[in-house]
Design goal:
Helix content is about 50%, strand content about 5%. The protein has a three-stranded antiparallel beta sheet with strand order 2-1-3, with helices on one face. A hairpin with a 5-residue loop joins β1 and β2. The longest helix is centred in the middle third of the chain and has 33 residues. The model has no long low-confidence stretch (mean pLDDT about 80).
């Protein structure tokens, strides 16, 4: 990994971690030759990096020092807006799609449960070996659990639509 890539990754990490504004960044190389970017000098093996124009934004605060809430975020003037009629149409389309998916997943779950037969599905002709049968039963259990999770997730999504 070259130094430039390391520097860019370090900047991204420091920005995400909410470091203070305009901090000095150091490139430290340990005895094994591993490079580390940090905002604190850890000894003589660290060199300050000169990164022109690289300022790290201050972390967002949940409230001001006087206890008042921060000002509400304002969308840029050119931010795309959707009128309420179009949004309602989109929500209706989304609801229809999710309902269709929920119905399909519910049918799939019912079919899987029927095949599972309360843990004792019928043996197939190719399952003379007990291991093959048990493998299919385990696969059915996993498929049922996955289908149940999908049904629950689709129900939550439908409940979130306004």
């Amino acid at each position: 990994m070259n130094t430039r890539t390391l520097v860019l990754q370090g900047l991204a990490l420091l920005a995400v971690s909410g470091a203070a504004q305009a901090q000095q960044i150091y490139l430290c190389v340990n005895a094994e030759g591993r490079k580390e970017l940090t905002d604190t000098r850890k000894g003589s093996h660290c060199k300050p990096l000169d990164l022109p124009g690289a300022t790290i934004p201050a972390p967002r605060q949940s409230a001001r020092r006087d206890g008042t809430p921060p000002p509400a975020a304002v969308a840029p003037a050119n931010f795309p807006r959707v009128d309420s009629a179009e949004q309602k149409a989109r929500d209706a389309d989304r609801r229809a799609i999710l309902t269709d998916e929920l119905n399909t997943e519910s049918r799939k779950l019912a079919d899987l449960r029927k095949e599972f037969n309360n843990g004792e599905p019928e043996r197939r002709a190719d399952e003379r070996n007990a291991a093959k049968y048990q493998e299919r039963v385990a696969g059915l259990k996993d498929s049922i659990a996955r289908a149940e999770q999908n049904v629950e997730a689709l129900k939550r999504e439908l409940a979130n639509i306004k």
